[in-house]
Specification:
- By secondary structure, the protein is α/β, with parallel strands linked by helices.
- About 35% of the residues lie in helices and about 15% in strands.
- The chain contains 11 helices and 10 strands.
- The longest helix is centred in the C-terminal third of the chain and has 15 residues.
- About 45% of the residues are buried.
Length: about 300
């Protein structure tokens, strides 16, 4: 694989994102060296809260939640998926597969030997994060899912179809505008600069372009069988499992019901609807999500 690395200068002076960088070096199955970036804040001896982002965002999405949760005494980790943020970016779309993403994040998770994890996941952070839960259920203490799913080839929404068509056809992928369009609030120019920062030009966006095409929405898609196997594990997952979908996301609307019906740990939980939140509810309601996660941990400790 040819691998690109966004220059550090692209990330200088980002508003509300002054976290010290942390890196995990590992090798892909083909032997290619890769470097994964993550944010880590809060007490080292506290149990970890893992915040997983999706497409086409990065750990900047969680900046306010990282600070808020760390101030409440949690050890907070927010990794950048390979292809995003400060992490390395393989140059070709063909370098990215669902299973490779799961393998890359598994290497990071086990490399840091994270245990007793509280997972919060949204968008592709859920698709990958829930596969991690299925692969390492003993490492997770509880899960919060928001605006995500774990598809097994049974179809798609019209909103997702429009996004897929756009992402695969537009000559320039306007990353900041995409995240802003998926949020209720209007971004500042500083916010937009931060979302565009990982991608100095189109050559850095292979992962961002590829993600929508990797969602297993038809029986013929790769990873359908792997996701079905993951669902078998989730259907036996009895640890606390909370849904927190927002009220203004057409892409994942109604997706919380499958988790509430199929995951044993979701039974009897005080599931919430985040009002006034778009697809990227972390941008719209970060303080509310901090209180939700903190309260969930304390209530189920």
């Amino acid at each position: 694989m040819k691998v690109l690395r966004t220059p550090d200068t692209c990330f200088e002076g980002l508003e509300d994102y002054s976290f010290a960088p942390h890196y995990h070096d590992f090798k892909d199955a083909d032997g290619t060296p890769l470097r994964l970036h993550y944010v880590e804040e809060g007490p080292k001896d506290a149990t970890p809260v893992l915040l997983m982002h999706g497409e086409p965002s990065w750990s900047f999405l969680y900046r306010h939640m990282v600070t808020g949760l760390a101030e409440k005494g949690h050890r907070v980790l927010a990794p950048d998926l390979i292809g995003f943020g400060k992490s390395d970016k393989p140059a070709e779309q063909e370098d990215y597969t669902f299973e490779r993403h799961v393998a890359w994040m598994s290497d990071w998770l086990t490399g840091l030997d994270l245990k007793n994890i509280t997972l919060f996941c949204q968008d592709w952070g859920g698709l990958i994060g829930l596969r991690l839960v299925a692969a390492f259920p003993e490492r997770f203490a509880r899960v919060v899912v928001a605006n995500t799913g774990l598809p097994i080839g049974t179809g798609w929404s019209e909103a997702f179809k429009q996004w897929l068509d756009f992402s695969q056809s537009t000559p320039v992928l306007p990353v900041a505008d995409i995240v802003n369009g998926g949020s209720v609030r209007d971004f500042s120019e500083a916010d937009k600069k931060a979302y565009d920062a990982p991608f100095p030009d189109e050559s850095f966006k292979a992962g961002a372009r590829r993600f929508p095409a990797l969602v297993p929405i038809t029986p013929e898609h790769p990873s359908v069988e792997e996701n079905k196997a993951a669902w078998k594990v989730l259907e036996a997952f009895e640890k606390p499992f909370l849904t927190a979908f927002s009220d203004q996301d057409p892409v994942t609307k109604g997706g919380e019901k499958i988790f509430q019906e199929r995951v044993p740990g979701a039974k009897g939980q005080p599931h919430v609807t985040i009002e006034g939140g778009g697809h990227f509810l972390q941008e719209d309601k970060p303080a509310e999500l901090v209180e939700l996660i903190d309260g969930f941990i304390k209530r189920t400790a």
